[in-house]
Amino acid sequence: MRVACKATARMLTFLLIVTMIVLTMGTVSAQDFQQDFQIFYGNLHSHTSFSDGRGTPEEAYEHARRYGDVLAVTDHCYYLKTPINGTSKVLRTIQAARNATVPGKFVGLQGFEWTAGSGHINVYETEEIITRDEKGDLKDFYEWIVRVKKLAQFNHPGMTFGNFQDFVYYPEADLYVNLVEIGNGSASRSDTISDEMFQNFILALNRGWHVSPTANQDNHRENWLSANDSRTGILARDLTYEAIMDALWNRRTFASEDKNVKVFFWGDGAIMGSIVRKSPGSTVKLKLTYEDPSDPADTVILYSQSGILFRADNFAKDKFTLEQEFQLPDGYEWFFYYIKQKDGDEIVSAPIWYEVAQPVKVNYVRIGPSRPSIRDTVTVTYDVYNSSNEARHVKLSIKVDGNKFFEETLDLKPYAVMYDKRVTIEPLEAGKHRIDFEVNDQIVQNWTFEVSESAGLRVLVDRLHENDINQEVLSFLEALQKNGHEILYPETVLAGYDNIDVVLLITPSKAGLSFFKDLMDMEIEWLNNFKGHVYLVRGSDAEYFEIYKQLIKNAKVFEDVRNLFEEFQISGVQQRKLQPVVFIDQGHENDYTSRYLTKLESFLKSLGKEVRYVTKLTDLDGEYLILMNGKGYSDDEVQSIVKFVLNGGILIITSKSDYQNGGNTEELNLILDALNSPVLFNDDQVVDKVNNYGADYKVLAGGVRFYSACSLLIVGDDVEVLLASETASSVDADGRKDAKPVDRVVLASRFKRGSGTVIVLGKAVFSDYDFEPNRAFIETLFRQR
Question: Where does the signal sequence lie (predicted)?
Fold first, then answer.
């Protein structure tokens, strides 16, 4: 993990007064700070068979108590409305948690996971639940959490599962969403804290959220708290339900990939997670203690809203105290420590916030362009909000290099936010410049930036038209920035922008609404009269790609985003080329051995592909992976499959009907769930008395033969239906009453994740029995790359 690049773009403005490292002898404990906090280790995110996992809540708590101190069972909310044996799943989980709790020994917590396209959120200790079917909008969720006043946690923020609309800030919801998961995973390796989630943690802090980090296992199997060594460290006065909940409500946590490290972080006598009232210019005293016998720290970094303030490498101490003093540059600042151990395990402490008592704050300051030159007009964008439950009338002043530049009076209702306010500064001379924001003449925020003599290209990237901006595009944009070019995004309309060199238009994704994909007349006119370069790159919606090509006459067209690296002459960027290999899983009791896949193998070889039959799913460096109704996948293999897709691979995953309980629906849905899939396998059998090839379970859909297939459940929006039947129906062939009703039988679908694609089929269609009748459809699956 590259920790050196994790600071925010803000320049350092602190005065470091003193740093003192004390190598303590004896045990580091809370008594060093005249407090009685102890550290307990827990897992705040897990699932059971009450949703898409295994086992019961009772089994989860019983298992977890042997491996840690705290377990929260947080099944997916949309499963919890269905009773089990006539009993509410929510009430049964609460009762199981209370029964499992033994003061001084173990604490069981109950909750649920709310899921939507904007992100996933855990809510703890509540009988009332909210589902995405009722309230699928993030704003609706925040209004609900304010009403019920329950503790919540942002889960695994990132591109795959969402990052809560870039952590758009809701001050009143900030009172209840107090945790953020930056470590997530149940693979045997403890490497769960990802750079993407870490960066999103910093984004959340910069937007104004008061959240502390956690590391959890998100278990879907019977390995609650035992999957790996990742833990959420909880600083509580004792191991009781009341003390643990008090610690979580007050953000006294740290995220750890090590299961027994002890970390305490204090500021001016306040424990980590605290919000301390201080005035700008005040001196703050920070103190960190660390202890993990025979597991020394290697790197220690102090992060703040102003950037990295301290870094020490090759630390090589398994017990130490670090004391530092700083002066606060303004009225809103946070600090937290990052520690990387010699063995690679990472630990991230909760922040400590230093804020003025004034409740009106300024945050999320941005300048555009982010690397201005002397020719640029600088646009400063920021949010202003009222964090109190009373209306406020204030004066906001903005100073540039100490000179008053702008002033206005604001009337803010309780918890009101004014998003994306902006001022424009005429071109500045080369060098460093500082912007101060003052509320009622008290500085609440500042931003320092540098103006250069010259700059790279300005690239305006459209994101207003359901653009297919996937991981590959994001990687290219990151490379552009690293090579000195500036990335800008249109706010409301793709027209009227000055001082732009290039317009980059990734055409729309297959998902999304056509209304938003359409270009307005004024946008078409502006693009066709644009004096710079207009680059048009193919998105997944082939129809709109052709429409855009016809409308924008002066565009240079690219079939693949990878061609842009050459166009921009980005040096030093090695594009990862996938090996022309098709992996076919044969190690998980799959349908069809290689003996019955001879025609598929010959076809793939004719396309220049190498076919590899594999029994363990590791090191998957290839273009395709085919999983046919397998079972018994380890957590490591599931993570390997996810990585394969995110890196650009195409996964073809198939199940089969539940006749004689033959489909491995539960196992395969675990893989899809790990990909945040908008489609799942149903536990049913598809029959069709009209369109079949000899029996009602031999279904024909779009001319494709499906022998004893299951249907697909569409549970999200970003999915393309490839094949469906209007005459087929779903039946519960195994009689277990676990088939979910469907309005239309879908048998084949496709969605994108990261740089890759997932194709989901209700049954494998390429055995030697079916290959020739299905050849045209099979060719579309393997020629799409």
Answer: 1-30
